[in-house]
Specification:
This protein is an alpha/beta fold. It is built from 17 helices and 19 strands.
Length: about 475
């Protein structure tokens, strides 16, 4: 393929007529397709989420054959999914999540237990994704390609899948049948069920995660907005209009209790999650502009989002995308767009015979500051345990009240949250405020600890404060 690229580049520099240039380009395309067909690989992709969609599409567009191994029952998500389309994500989001699948949230509102209430305009770059419709349409389009085979299995059959690397690629055994592939992609999410076969020491290591417990409630907001809520339980939760409607078409609200902790403590979180969510719902009813018609949830969902950054692979032919690769970023809600991008990057790597480690290194170039955000998350676990997580937002709320916040400050905060870049002006504001200075110092010390001693140096312990003993009653 490099030869064709050189031919096109060299020939394009010659003063040839336009008609001949078009002919040469057609010859290049024919040569490229012939190259791809002669070097076509057989790839197994496990999972049917966004990473599976983007990697399967990119691989087949490059002339490879894909076998998609998926559950035989839909893996629905009744909680709204959020994303952005700025910067490096714009092209991949325009391709796989065009505007018809987006519901913009033009306002980000902060509301805390101490009475802080302020809003920031986000325009159209932050939105909810109509995930059910998007995945239904994308899977139907992909599964109609001749170069894609779809195989559906029960959850029990998928639990007993065996994946083994060998010098020729990957051997996959399902339901007694054994087949050889040139490579395999794990797009199974936080479960990392395929990586657990070939790299168990990475897949099974206890990691930091965001716990999520969400309910859908009949209700409305005065405007379309995302409300970030800091209540007395120490969580950093949120509320927004749902993309779903109730059984009779009534509008719904997503009320999501979210906290951080070690993956191994997720079962303990689930034991307390219903009580914590009910306290959050009780607090939500005090928010101006929010009308809760019924505090009985129509549906409840729970999950965890691994948030420790990219995992360094030691495999040769098994790749991971999305959460299985550790792409989710703490605090900024970047998971869906990163998953799509990781699928495209992985497909390109397989096409070019690059290893999983090379994929890891390339993705790290996209997200060089993730460990800083991880350090910030770890540094705040103590505050989460004491229920004192709102002090940064309360301080920022005071800045808004006294008029010391302008659009330039908001842009600086966006650059810090999304890109990890901190301007001199923002740094000066942080270090001259005692609350922010304490957080900055603690984060820097935590970051140094991660770099020197690794994540294994942090004790695995319960990171949430005591749950209130009695949950608020449901309305009659």
């Amino acid at each position: 393929m490099d030869g064709f690229q050189i031919l096109l580049k060299d020939s394009a520099e010659l003063p040839i007529p336009l008609s001949d240039s078009i002919l040469l380009y057609k010859l290049y395309i024919i040569g490229y397709n012939t190259y791809s067909m002669c070097n076509s690989k057989e790839i197994a992709i496990f999972g049917n989420g966004p990473g599976s969609i983007s990697s399967a599409d990119a691989l087949t567009n490059s002339g490879h054959r894909v076998t998609r191994i998926v559950p035989d029952t839909p893996q629905g998500n009744s909680r709204s999914i959020y994303s952005t389309s700025t910067g490096i994500y714009r092209d991949v989001m325009d391709t796989y999540c065009p505007p018809e699948y987006r519901k913009p949230l033009p306002t980000m509102r902060i509301y805390t237990v101490n009475g802080t209430d302020f809003s920031v305009e986000t325009g159209t770059d932050y939105f909810m994704v109509n995930y059910p419709k998007l995945t239904e349409d994308a899977n139907a389009r992909l599964n109609g390609k001749e170069s894609i085979t779809v195989e559906s299995y029960s959850s029990n059959e998928l639990r007993h899948v065996k994946v083994r690397e060998n010098q020729n690629g990957v051997e996959v055994t399902i339901d007694g049948g054994r087949r050889q592939f040139d490579a395999a992609i794990d797009s199974t999410g936080a479960g990392r069920s395929i990586m657990a076969h070939v790299a168990p020491e990475v897949a099974k290591r206890d990691k930091i995660a965001e716990y999520v417990y969400a309910g859908q409630y009949p209700g409305t907001l005065a405007q379309d907005e995302m409300i970030l809520v800091w209540d007395k339980t120490g969580a950093t939760s949120w509320i927004n209009p749902s993309i779903y409607t109730g059984p009779n078409g009534e509008p719904l609200l997503d009320i999501v209790y979210s906290a951080w902790g070690w993956e191994s403590f997720f079962p303990q979180f689930l034991n307390e999650a219903d009580t914590r969510l009910r306290h959050l719902v009780d607090f939500a009813e005090t928010i101006p502009g929010l009308q809760l018609i019924d505090n009985h949830p129509i549906e409840l969902t729970a999950g965890k989002i691994l948030s420790e950054g990219l995992y360094k692979p030691d495999t040769q032919h098994v790749y991971a995308v999305g959460e299985a690769a550790g792409v989710a970023k703490p605090k900024s809600g970047e998971s869906f767009n990163r998953t799509l991008l990781s699928g495209v990057v992985t497909a390109e790597a397989i096409d070019q015979n690059h290893t999983p480690l090379q994929v890891h290194d390339r993705l790290k170039q996209f997200w060089p500051n993730d460990y800083q955000f991880l350090a910030f998350t770890l540094a705040r676990l103590r505050e989460q345990h004491t229920g004192n997580t709102s002090k940064l937002m309360d301080t920022m709320g005071n800045w808004f009240k006294n008029g010391s916040v302008d659009q330039e400050f908001i842009k600086q905060m966006e650059d810090y949250i999304i890109k990890g870049s901190i301007s001199p002006a923002l740094l000066q504001r942080f270090v001259t405020n005692p609350v922010f200075l304490q957080t900055v110092v603690h984060t820097m010390l935590t970051y140094a600890r991660i770099k020197v001693f690794g994540m294994s140096s942090f004790p695995r312990k319960w990171t949430l404060g005591n749950v209130p003993q009695q949950a608020p009653a449901y309305s009659s």
